Every structure is written in C-alpha cells, then in structure tokens.
Amino acid sequence: MTLEQYENAKARYAALGIETEKAISKLAAKPISIHCWQGDDVIGFDNKDGGAGNGIQATGDYPGKARSFEELKADFLKAASLIPGKKRINLHACYAVFTNENPWVDRDKIEYKHFAPWVEFAKENSIGVDFNPTCFSHPMVKDGLTLSSPDKNAHRFWIEHCKASRRIANKIGEALEHKVLHNIWIPDGFKDIPADRLGPRLLLKSALDEIFTESCAHVIDSVESKVFAIGVESYTVGSNEFYLSYAASHPGVYNLLDNGHFHPMEYVSDKIPALLPFFDKIPLHVTRPVRWDSDHVVLYDDELREMMKEIVRNDALDKVLIGLDFFDASINRIAAWVIGTRNVQKALLFALLQPDARLRALQDNGNFTEKMMVMEEMKTLPFGDVWEEYCRRQGVYASDEDWFAEIVKYEKEVLLGRK
Ligand code: RNT
Ligand code: ZN
Question: Would you call 185 a catalytic residue per the annotation?
C-alpha cells in the first residue's frame, strides 16, 4: 500500500521532470550537524553550579534533562535512532569530559584528551563532529565581554580558550579524517548606549587575528554574528558587518549565518545567495526566532523551505554546512531534537523536488504569473509519500506518531527517573 503511494508520487513528480530517486539519494548524502546542547539546556559538564547564563539562556523546566556525559550520549543516540540520514554532533567546549585521570581544568587549559571520549562515541556511531569554543556561562565573562574585553586577563583568557578549542577541533578532525567546523560566537555587547563602539571591535579583531594564526588543516573556521540579546540591547561587538568584513578579508574564515540573529524582516534565505558569489562555504545555524533570537524548535515553515531551496537550486549542497541551533527546555528535549532535525530534512527534500529549471526560465522570461502558479501547485504534490519512503529506506519510522511513541516510552523508563 505505502509503496504504491510512493510509486504514484514518483510518477506525479516524473510528469514534471523531477526524479524522486535522485532527490532521495541527495538527501541521504547531506549531513546535518545536530547540536549537543539541546539535550541539557546548554549547561555542559564544566560548571555544574553555574549552568547556562552570562550570554545565553534556555527557558522551561521540563523534567529529564541529561546531567552527565553518559546521559547526554544516551539521549542523543535515542534521538539519532529516530532521525534518517547522515549526522554530525556539534559540541561545545563546555562539554569536556573530566574523569579521575583527566580532572577538571579551566577553559584556557582544555586539551584533546578531554574530548577523546566524544571521538570514540562518534566513531562507534559513524557520526561526524563539529566544535565550538564556549565564550559564555563563565566567571571570566567580564562586564559582558570576552574576546573584546579591555580587561587584559579576560581578553587573554578567552584568546587562550579559543586557541585551545581550535587545536582540539583540529585533532578531532585528524582522528575522524574529516574537516571540523570550528565556530566562534561571543555574547559581547552592552545593555545601554556605548561610549566607545570601535574600541571593543578593535580588541575583537586583534583577538581573532591571534586565534587564527596557527594553521589547522582539519578545521573550517567560522565566526557568528548577532544583532542583540537580552541584556545586550544597545550594542553587539560581533555584528554582521563586523564579521562579514572579517571573513571577506581573511580567506579561510567563513561567516556563519544563524537565522535567529537578524532583524525579523531580514531573511537568511536571501543572505545565502548574497554570500555565494564570494564564499565557497557558508555555515548555517538553523533555528526559529519568535519575535527575537528565541531558539525555538525548527518547524516545517516557509522560511525553512526558502533557505533549503536556495541551497538546492544554487547547487550549494556542498558549500552550505547545515547545523542546528535551538534549545527548548519546556518540552521533551529528545522530541525537540527529532522534530527540528527531521523538519530540516523534510524541507531539504521539498527543495530537492522543485522544478528549478522551469521556475528559473519563467522568472527570466518575466512569466511571473505562471511562476506563481507552479510554485503554489508544488505545495500540494504528494511530497509526504516521498518523505515516508525515504524514512523507510533509512530504517527509521516514517510516521511521527510511531517515533513519538518511542519517546514517550523512553521518557517513562529513563527521563522521569532523573531527579
Ligand atoms: C547564540 C548563538 C550560538 C549559541 C551556541 C550555543 O545566540 O546562536 O550559536 O546558540 O553556540
Ligand atoms: Zn547560533
């Protein structure tokens, strides 16, 4: 029955010149970098008393968050088992694994050995790894500043942290024989009107220059801008103009686009093709801003589909590195992972099933009426049947009801036991 539905869908798409088989194999080959921090509300393992804060926050108190390396791994694997396709895990430096043999060290002193257990985990489960320095939730965040701090000790501490983090990323890449995205995001900014807007940026620039001097063959470097945050309403040091200019003038450093980090009327779907003529890589943080950078779980909405369309229609599947960045502590965290990741994949599949050549020709010929008609028609083609067939081939539940039942069971058996 279901196979019949797929065959029917395949024929419907074929009539428009679209090959569902091709779309399915392209989707299967595209890795999605899944952020580990959805599993524990961005707390990490290195500051148990502090938790998230000082630049970042997750809201909600749903029971069962992961409290240790073991729990986070188990939860991640549960989510991964319900998500089709290639996966990577995106780690933050605050997820260093400290043991009796490798006891706690501060962030400027972390080494590869603190992440070797994650590499084992990645190898065992055939997943890739990406990495980030953690420049927040730490007492060395001085007056809200890290890499742009005028406090010499703080400035130095965060530079050393980023250098250590980049070295770790490089070794992870060496061990896994792939390139690791190393993305720098800092919370630096001011609540109220600055007396000096240039000074912090010059400090940030000199910090970045030092951080990037060491050559790291297994690293892809990126910097992530932001417009504002709670408590940082008036000024953000690492603004889009700052980082875009930095990336444009420093080959090998890329500008990461987080779609929660712009004004609500700005769209990352439009920024991707604006950067493509200039950069051979565009790392993304896919999230869902609700009024601001709220990091809600990614839904299958218009802007997500537009972003994925820009990647596919511009032949940029190898150039755009898709990573996720949301953290909702008010719902089951594993379900959040599964829903958000599957939605990105669904949107990607939707994009892979568009009649791009025809639509482009219609635009070029000024045939905007027909273009609108076709775009609308595509929305109600039997897309869901292709998605379900893809899930079946990948050995994961096609129906959301089915994977959700697994999560309900895991919540009862595992999560609710965590106090
Ligand atoms: C914060 C940035 C940043 C973080 C993660 C945890 O606004 O989006 O990417 O969410 O690094
Ligand atoms: Zn982000």
Answer: yes
Indicate which residue of 46, 75, 188, 224 is catalytic: 224
Establish if 68 belongs to a structural domain: yes
Nearest CA to 16 out of 354, 389, 361, 380 is that of 354
Q: What is the DSSP letter of 297?
A: P
* 3 state SS of 110: coil
Of 321, 232, 236, 237, the closest CA to residue 275 belongs to 321
Total count of domains within the chain:
1
The CATH code of the domain that includes 156 is 3.20.20.150
- pLDDT, mean of each 10-residue run, the chain (419 residues): 89 98 98 98 85 76 97 98 98 98 97 98 98 96 97 98 98 98 98 98 98 98 96 97 98 98 97 98 98 96 98 98 98 98 98 98 98 98 98 97 98 95
Asked if residue 214 is part of any domain, the answer here is yes
Q: Which of 30, 114, 138, 261 is catalytic?
A: 261
> 390-418 as b/e, with b when 16 or more CB fall inside 10 Å?
bbeebebbbeeeebbebbeebbeeebeee
Domain membership flag for residue 40: yes
Question: What length is written for the chain?
Answer: 419
132 lines ligand 1 (CB under 6 A): yes
Q: Taking the model in full, what pTM does it have?
A: 0.97
- Domain containing 317: what range? 31-341
Residue 118 inside a domain? The answer is yes
